[in-house]
Fold this protein.
Amino acid sequence: MLVLLSFQGAQYIEMASGTDTQVSKDSQLYKDYDHLFLNTFSTESIVVMVEGNDVETVDLMKAADRLEHQVENIPGVTTVSSPASVMKQINYAKTGRSRIPDSDPEVWEMIDSYPEYFESLVLDDTHMLIAIGIEGSSTDQEQEDIINNVEIASKEADFPPGYNLIITGRPSLMLDINSEMGKSMGVLLGIAGILMVIVLFLVFRHVRWGLLPLPVVLLGIVFTFGFMGYAGVPMTMVSMSAFPVLIGIGIDYAIQFHNRMEEEIRGGKNSAQALVYTVKHTAPAVLIALTMTALGFVSLFTSVVPMIQDFGKLLLIGVIMCYLSSLFFGLVTLYTFDWIAQKNLFGMFKKGGRRKGENGFDEGLEDLSVSVSAGHEPGAIEKTLKKLTGYTLKYSTVILVVALLTCSAGLYADRSIPIQTDTNTFIPQDMPSLINFKHMQSIMPGSGDHLNVILKVEDNSDPELLEWMDEFSLHEVASRSHIYSATSIVDLVKERNGGTIPGTSEEIQAIYEEIPESQKEIYLEGGQLLHIDLDIGTAMADLEITGIEELREIVKEDIGWMQPPPGVTVTITGDSVVIIDMIDGLTNGRSQMTLLGVFLVLMGLLVVYRDLVKALSPIIPMIIVIGWSGLVMAGMGIAYNPMTAVMGALILGVGSEYSILMMERYFEEKNAGMDPVDAIYQAVSTTGTALIASGATTVFGFSALIASPFPMISSFGLVTVIDVLLAMLVTFVIFPPLIILMDTHRGKATEIFAKILRKNSYSEPVSV
């Protein structure tokens, strides 16, 4: 029933990629961008680029005209502009007939006579453009439908042979990126699943049915999808990376339960006893680890970027669903399999059932995937872990000192790690759609990045206002090397008034009425909003985020220096502004998120254990991992990007789980009567073996992401693999000597802490 409900809920999941995933709806930035620009002046253009030996021919103009007529009828298309439509307008003004010239010489003469009308559409003798305008606020699905219809119309327009038609533009590029990311992610997750099967078969072979954790965690992912749909959590570009994380964390829950139940069965308990004992001892430990993991993820909610907050919600839902799947489905399945093996109901196993060996556990299961023999012979992993623990205890002082020093060096080095801010580097550079888009940018003026200056005015026909806009635009283009052009309603007014601005509002209003609506709506809205479009070329690639921020501040200073007329409010917004603020929020807030995560996990451990040693023991190894991660990234020259910037919270989530589970088993064995050294040996050889299996599975799963064609995802996979390996190294090298050192030297610090916790039971303040 839950699976069916989950499939139903998954249908409600919405893909989100709009502005509200990048900046908060409550922020002034969102209000300025969405209300003042996106829904008012913004338009997106799908460009049909025609390439050939000679684009100034009658046959080509007629084909462009046929395409234009078909595209105009596509729902969602607002404007279509081509050299053919310009020629028809010129002929209509001259002769009263809207027609295309009859011969090539007439076409050449018209283009030569009116170069200002054709310069943006006929780029040279071999390139011609057909610009298709659509609403800037249109959804991804609407844009995809329009592009598909444009492709069909291009084929039906019957262009002459020898001409190449390329459909490009920002909408086409973004749809191709999303499609390619979805395809590559599916392939990579498939590869990750195969690698996980292989590693489980290799390192988890000391138990029966060693591949069971994988379907258990996948069931948890199915539950996660269902809950997402019912809870209204959207799927974003960042959310897609959550599922490998959840598989890595969730499979550890399944492996811990599986390993402990098999251990109890080998110890002589029957299926029911083993199940109860596993739930009694392992379920609380894993639940505590889950809680601390969740507290680490809570720090993601402090991000100013909504899609990071949704990423945190998805991780919280996922770890809970994976835990429930492991606790109920995983254990019940194990119980059922073991019961079937005992009864041999379907004749699957050799007769003779199970018999007790000398040490009290079952024999007679030779034909299981891993037979259970009368006496547990330590495997290679157990022997290696015990030997490693012996070395770490022998050289504990040196190991701890070196760990703390290298951690400090890593925390210092982390401050110098560069931030990858060029968004073009996040995607594969050999994508055909990206190559086409860059090709268009290289030959088409005004197709690059923009800063959008929005003016709120009392009267949009005030001559003084238009004079200021003209002066400001000319100053920016002349004085700022990265501003290549500035266009506004002033340009259209001057075109129709002999190159000057009229002296009265009435004259300006009369010119406004002459301007076609399709041209006017880009720069003018109602009576109180005006738009100046500053073309900054390829500044996002050339200047990166810091340079764009500086350019925006320079424009602000220019506006402050060249004061607009009284009553005018100026706002700088646009796609570039949103992107730089989003990436700035993702990267610059990473340290605060990590510190908050450490604090929340520490407080959570103090509340659960009310014991300073038990609270600090899992935290210190994670701080070491965070420091080591910074050291490795700095040494390997790996830069932070929007996905790797959240790794601090993920390290806390994954790594603290390893330390907590090891600590829980250590204190369980110690409470059973073992001394500290024997207890840590037992914890390492039992829980540690399962941690090796889950850690190796996680590493192999994430290693598939390194092969992603998307550099951002590849970098995320590499950093995750490094951090999981570091978390495992810390768990087996740093944690054993650390827990023994802290546990055997509790002394006065623990007594003082206990007094502080009990201070509410005293009528007077506690004196320490």
Remarks:
- Residues 349-375, 760-768 have pLDDT under 50 and may be disordered.
